[in-house]
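Reviewer 2 asked us to include a model.

Predict the structure of this chain.
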Amino acid sequence: MKDIKKIVLTGGPCAGKTTALVRIIEHFSSLGYKVFTIPEVPTLYSLAGWNYLTPNKNLYYEGERAILKTQLVLEDTFMQMAEVCKKPTLIVCDRGTLDISAYMTPEMWEEITAKENTNTSELRSRYDAVLHLVSAADGAEQYYTVATNSTRYEQVNEEGLRIARELDKKVIKAWTGHPHLRVINNHDDFDKKLNRVIKEISHVLGLPQPIEEERKYIVELSGEVPDCIESEITQTYLVAEPGCEIRLRRRGWHGKYVNVHTTKKHTESNEILETERQVSNNLYESLLQQADPYRQPIRKLRKSFIWKGQYFELDNYLEPVSNLMILETKGVAAKESVKFPPFIKVLEDITGNDKYYNYNLALRK
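Predicted model (structure tokens):
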């Protein structure tokens, strides 16, 4: 197959997708890629006169089904064009098929997808990556506006901000289970948010990236984590050549599992080349035969959540270590302050402390 990557750029209301698309086109076109951008289909229907807030249930249903059908046709059409391009091609979808599910009940979604002879699992697998830009309504309220989208119904008031935050979390939940879902934080400097988008797409394209440490902390949990996504993770390290790390991860939500094979190679120029691919259950079981005999599998429970525009992963380790809880930031810039939630008590900053790298925690004693 030709060198084609298809990603989804998604997020809550006023997340910066429009500006990000301009930056993506400019950056990757300059690197020799042909960049196709698929427009936001729900907006096309809203501009044409359809309204997802309509009280007419039949009109709402037919509109949502039409949006899914149009999304699929557009994606398939652009994929056909990409196949005949002579350049490596990047297809960027301004929202994807699973965004549609965030605006209806699970029962309606199952019915609509069945009529289109598809399902959530098949739709999720259509994309190489999903980048979720957090809504400005969560942590960057001063930048929230409806001026950039005339069809936006979440107005600039407390109720509008609340609705925007809820939609933001519903969209993340809809895409949970994709092996390359990345949540892009809000920052005081919007350019940092855009730079993170470029970095994540470069990762998907297999371009070497500077080595950067995410900030990590040993913490205690003193209350419930609101609006979090809980998952169970089993991580097994495979035999690899020196300077290379191969990880096999199984992550589960409510009895559904996704398996990802990741390879990390460090280059001489202090960069890292990381590739990852989703693998079937059968291949997962087969690859376990290549487990590193000097390392044990890691088991942990993860709570993923957004707090004041910043994305966190809270891991509670079960094996081979226990009584260890590590909070990791995702995409918080080096000189940016971490907005710790009140239910988290920080015990120790372990950023850059290789003792707490998963690769080393797995070592057999």
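The longest strand covers residues 256-266. DSSP finds nine helices and 15 strands in the chain. We have added this to the supplementary material.
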